[in-house]
Write a structure and sequence with these properties.
This protein is of the alpha/beta class. Strands 3-4-5-6-2-1-7 form a 7-stranded mixed β-sheet. Helix 4 packs antiparallel against helix 5, helix 5 packs across helix 8 and helix 13 runs antiparallel to helix 14. The longest helix is centred in the middle third of the chain and has 25 residues. It starts with 6 loop residues before the first strand and ends in a 7-residue tail after the last helix.
Length: 456
């Protein structure tokens, strides 16, 4: 539960560093700051200005450190409360002593995410923006960071708010007709209700359709490299990583285990897995490698199926092709710099095939684009038009809203069931409010903000 007291925490990572920041928020932040801060030259301090001075323990007059201090009076602060930050030297013991001092004078230790939770409860941000804060902290690539920043700025919230306004407008018209049944329902009003529900449903569908793209940027995707032995799988992994990570030899079956690395392709975080060559074998170790490779195929978001352009298709290639039936994959024809042995009717001239040479680098840019487009469909992440969800909680709540809106859309075709239409619109309004936090239960809020670090 939200309490109107003063909280404090260390807002920088623990350990040695150049600067450590202790943050306070609440009605006593200014008062505590005045008790422990000795400004150089002497004097008080105003809001939104940095001051140089010393932190003094009022119990015995001991100077703990030379610091910079800034007070941000509410509502012009992160939490819309009085916020005070002390910027001291970043030694582990020192920041702990300063934190202990402010707690001894009336502050309490903040809970995980409590600063951001207060910003949400005080109306500075909605729940979508609050969840974007942790995505900013955890962003793995520039594109993931750009998406999180966009959501923190409220671009996604604005789309959801527009959808909510349409639902509210439709519900108001419906309830007006329920409250005043003696009035005739004008055809134009019925059309307006139907149009409002239709637009809300279209926006809902659009946001849900973009979830996979948002999730890919936020959480990353897994891409598995498969193929029979000695087609260049490890060479491809090294080429994608731009470093020699996997051992490459002319001896088939060099890779026996699954090798995992993370690579950034055009801003898309990818967990790349190189697997053992898939083939028929009696070698017990090689069999286990094949079993692991087949298991990874079932878990992958995308599969890179590598073939050797210098050799005709073999039975092992065809076996792998059958295993990939119905799964998202790209055929990667390696060794394109060598004389081609594949037949024209092998069917590898379509859009799902990329010809490359890991030795010369030919075709690698095309492969990068193909991997990116498999998840983001060529969309520019940094454009203002790229408005997607990336959070499973938001997706689930919006999914419930979509079901209610679909029922409401069907209700609009039967003007005699206004009570049912109103009930469906109220449910849609309730569930869309779960996305932004207007109707989110306290237990859900607790789970969300527990994911934050203390001090944010």
């Amino acid at each position: 539960m939200y309490r109107n007291d003063t909280i404090a925490a260390i807002s920088t990572p623990l350990g040695e560093g150049g600067i450590g920041v202790i943050r306070m928020s609440g009605p006593r932040a200014h008062e505590i700051g005045e008790k422990i801060f000795s400004r150089i030259p002497d004097g008080g301090f105003s809001s939104h200005r940095f001051y140089y001075g010393k932190i003094i323990d009022p119990a015995d007059g001991t100077a703990l450190d030379e610091v910079l201090l800034v007070l941000m009076k509410g509502p012009r602060s992160y939490t819309r409360e009085d916020v005070l930050e002390i910027h001291c030297h970043g030694g582990y013991l020192l920041v702990q002593r300063v934190l202990s001092l402010v707690i001894s004078l009336g502050a309490r230790l903040a809970e995980p995410g409590e600063f951001t939770r207060r910003a949400f409860l005080n109306g500075r941000i909605d729940l979508v923006q609050a969840e974007a804060v942790i995505d900013i902290i955890r962003g793995k690539t520039d594109a993931a960071l750009a998406l999180a920043q966009q959501q923190r700025e409220g671009v996604l919230s604005l789309r959801i708010s527009e959808m909510r306004e349409g639902i509210v407008s439709a519900l108001a018209m419906v309830e007006a007709h329920i409250d005043f049944p003696e009035e005739d329902i004008e055809s134009i009003t019925t059309g307006e209700i139907r149009e409002s529900v239709k637009k809300a449903l279209e926006t809902c569908d659009e946001l849900l359709a973009g979830y996979d793209e948002g999730r890919a940027l936020r959480d990353g995707v897994s891409v598995v490299i498969v193929g029979r032995p000695n087609v260049g799988k490890s060479s491809l992994m090294n080429a994608l990583l731009r470093e020699k990570r996997a051992i490459v030899t002319a001896v088939p079956g060099t890779t026996r285990d699954v090798i995992e690395e993370v690579v950034n392709i055009r801003g898309l975080p990818i967990k790349l897995l190189d697997t053992a060559g898939i083939c028929r074998t009696e070698d017990i170790v090689e069999k286990e490698g094949v079993r692991l490779a087949l298991a990874k195929i079932g878990q992958a978001d995308l599969i890179l199926f590598v073939l050797d352009a210098s050799r005709p298709l073999e039975d092992d290639d065809r076996y792998i092709m059958n295993e990939l039936e119905g799964r998202k994959h790209i055929r990667v024809i390696n060794k394109s710099d060598l004389p081609r042995a594949m037949e024209p009717d092998d069917g590898f001239e379509d859009e799902e095939t990329v010809w490359i040479s890991t030795r010369t680098g030919a075709g690698m840019d095309t492969l990068h684009k193909k991997i990116y487009d498999s998840f983001l469909h060529g969309r520019a992440v940094d454009s203002r038009e790229f408005v997607v969800m990336s959070n499973v909680r938001q997706r689930d709540a919006l999914g419930k809203c979509r079901i209610a809106l679909q029922r409401a859309a069907a209700d609009t075709e039967h003007p005699g069931v206004l009570e049912l239409l109103a009930a469906d619109l109220r449910e849609a309004l309730q569930t869309v409010g779960e996305v932004t936090g207007e109707t989110t239960a306290d237990e859900v809020l607790d789970l969300i903000f527990q994911r934050f670090c203390i001090g944010k």
